[in-house]
Amino acid sequence: GDGKNPDFGASDRQYFEKLKFLVREHDLEDNIKFIITSDQELVDLYHYSDNFLLTPLNIGHHFEGFGLVYLEAAAAGLPSIGSSGCGAEDAIRDGVTGLLVPQNDVGETSRALVRLLRDRELQKKMKENAKNFAAEMIWDKVAKETILLYDKALES
After folding, report:
1. What are phi and psi of 53, to 5 degrees?
2. Which of 2, 14, 52, 100 could staple 84 via S-S, CB 3.0–4.6 A?
3. CA-only gyration radius of the chain, Å
4. What is the pTM of this model?
């Protein structure tokens, strides 16, 4: 994509341009592709993939929230690798549906990915677990659990 998606805000466009610059600066154009796509094309990409990796960082007061994207990947049967302390813990069961790695730890992230790529039995087990977990996380169930948490908080 070119970053001219109408859904991009000005800060998103700036960040996107910075990422493209870093890819060019480190001569990674053959390794990293930026894709802006439709929802259906995204689903197709999930089904084409073996694993999902998103390792955000907390920077000041900016942090990743719940991480719905991990559940989208899980619904397609993808084990995920995500950063701990960034909301991924709610969407990835470490060692069950994927792997959690420390923030900004390239070594641990690469070891986690290599582990999934080499251990096909583990990957197969996590794929099945991921699908099952995503199926449990339907909106009705999650909304009811959230309401119960708010009710408990109000009672105290």
Report:
1. -130, 120
2. 100
3. 17
4. 0.73
How far is 134 from 140, CA to CA, in rounded Å?
A: 13
| CA atoms lying within 13 Å on the CB side of residue 12 | 9
Q: How far apart are the first and last CA of the chain?
A: 50
Contact between residue 74 and residue 130 where contact means Cβ atoms under 8 Å apart: yes
What is the chain's length?
Answer: 156
B/e letters for 108-141, b = 16+ CB within 10 Å, e = fewer, are bbeebbeebeeeeeebeebbebbbebbeebeeee
List per-residue pLDDT tens for the chain, 156 residues long: 444 554 566 778 898 899 999 999 999 999 888 887 888 888 888 988 999 999 988 887 776 667 789 999 999 999 999 999 888 898 999 999 999 999 999 999 999 999 999 999 999 999 999 999 999 887 777 778 788 888 888 887
